[in-house]
Amino acid sequence: MQTLPGTTRPRISPAFATAALLLALNLLNYIDRYILSGEVLPIQHEFHVTDQQMGALGTAFFFVYMLAAPATGWLGDRFRRKPLIIAGAMLWSFATLAAVWIHSYQTLYLRQALVGIGEATFGIFAPAVLADFYPERERNRVLSVFYVAIPVGAALGYLAGGVIGAHWGWRAPFFVCALPGFVVAALYMWLGREPERGASDRVHADLKRSTVLGIFRNPAFLTATLGLAMLTFAMGGISWWVPEFLRRSVGLSMGTASLVVGASTVVDGILGTLVGGWIAQRWLRRDHRALYLLSAWSVLLTLPCGILLFFGPHSWAIPALFAAEFFLFLNTGPLNTAIVNSVSAPVRATAISVNLLCIHLLGDTFSPQVIGAISDRAHSLSVGLGATLVTLAVSTTILFAGARFAPVFEEAQISPAS
After folding, report:
1. Contact partners, residue 167, CB within 8 Å, separation at least 6
2. Which residues are within 8 A (CB) of 190 and not within 5 positions of it... i.e. 6 or more apart?
3. Which domains occur in the chain, in start order?
4. Which parts of 214-279 are beta strand (E)?
5. Dist. CA 302–CA 10, nearest whole Å
6. Hey, CA dihedral for 42, 43, 47, 48, is it positive or negative?
7. CA separation (Å) from 212 to 99, 204, 215, 344?
8. How many other C-beta atoms are found inside a 10 Å radius of the C-beta of residue 207?
9. What CA–CA distance (Å, rounded) separates 141 from 126?
10. Stated pTM of the model
11. Quick one: which of 316, 40, 310, 261 has its CA closest to 151?
């Protein structure tokens, strides 16, 4: 069809097209990660393994994930990130597809490790690419949308594992969810763009923000990272075990438990992430500490909901789960944005890789297995999950303390009304 004289065809901006494809890849990233959590029971029955051994599958993923992070971060600050993102997406999609042919616990363990390598590559480079498209004050808005993929992907992973797995066996969800990864990776190869490093940075790049050694002397980065690490311990353990907790403690079937967790995760995840990003964006207009303060308050408000979920009456478990997840997801965009903003472009991929190493080493690499071990010994999954409440309290303290180190944007220095 011909275009009328004097008009131009509408054109999608490179930033929007790249962000949309990265969002799609992030969604598939989390779907593939959480399939296993939705079908603990049939895997335990087939391979005759304990809670601790099931938790060890989560440990295998995150252990390799965090070990791969420093190497991939170094690559991301020195080479083009687009081919690295494509390679990571293809790798985790292949590992997900490979689950179809697994017939032993040991092979499943190795498969989890392989997925960790692919997802670590993507998790480091995607936020760094988006940060180069948008300035600091706008990154919270963009990254809040980007991280909506976490709850939606996790929910779809739970649902795929619990519903598809219940009808066609636990291997079927892996086959269904692996194929889209290859398709979106191919689209990103064709349509994705890579901006110049640091093209949108506005904060002054001092030594603490612009050198690798400076990362470890940067209190804004360190407090955000340690606060997120303590939060990640809780979120990793809860996300791995809560479907099984609802089956054992509340009496739901595997499929129903997965549906409940999937529904709460997707509803709370979308609402919590977007509402948290919106509140932080408005708060930032008058207080440069907003990203840290919003994150600290969200974790603090989660604590009473977690106590009610794990130790309260069973009739309150599902409402408490919905409330706890809503507050947890409020900080998703703001806290990740705080980490991205705390460092400058030359070392951003390295800093994100250090962040991933720390949050998984101190967080969810061992939390599923630790919770499983406590559950085996206490004969109570509630007691095991109670360990997450301690780390939530520690996270709150660190994030409140870190607010004093939040970087000030140049725009905020122009005038009080800016």
Report:
1. none
2. none
3. 14-414 (1.20.1250.20)
4. none
5. 45
6. negative
7. 38, 16, 5, 10
8. 11
9. 15
10. 0.74
11. 261
- Cβ 139 vs Cβ 109: under 8 Å: no
Distance CA 416, CA 346 (A): 30
> Which amino acid, one-letter code, is at 35?
I
Q: What is the C-alpha separation between 378 and 52, in angstroms, rounded?
A: 13
Task: From 61, 72, 51, select the one nearest 110 (Cα to Cα).
Answer: 61
CA distances from 255 to 37, 63, 336 (A): 12, 29, 32
Dihedral sign for Cα 207, 213, 86, 364, please: negative
SS3 198: coil
Q: Which two tokens stand for residue 214?
A: 């400076």
| 196 contacts 382 by C-beta, under 8 angstroms | no
Angle 285-286-292 (CA atoms, 0-180°, nearest 5)?
85
Q: pLDDT tens, position by position, for the chain (418 residues)?
A: 444 555 454 466 888 889 899 999 999 988 888 888 778 888 888 898 888 888 788 778 878 877 887 777 777 777 788 888 998 899 889 989 988 898 899 998 888 888 888 777 777 888 888 888 888 778 888 888 888 888 788 878 878 887 888 788 889 989 998 999 999 999 998 888 888 876 666 665 554 556 778 888 899 999 999 999 999 999 888 887 888 888 888 888 877 887 888 788 888 988 999 999 999 999 988 899 999 999 999 999 999 999 999 998 988 999 999 999 999 999 998 999 999 888 887 888 888 888 888 888 888 778 888 898 898 888 888 999 998 999 999 999 999 999 999 988 654 433 333 3
Residues 20/146, Cβ–Cβ less than 8 Å: no
Alpha-carbon distance of 341 to 363, in angstroms, equals 22
Tell me the two tokens of residue 120: 């670590």
Query: Do the beta carbons of residue 38 and residue 165 sit within 8 Å?
Result: yes
Which tokens go with 369?
A: 């297995």
The span from the CA of 70 to the CA of 380, in Å, is: 37
CA–CA dist 180, 183 (Å, integer): 5
> Using CA atoms, how far apart are residues 306 and 388, in angstroms rounded to an integer?
9
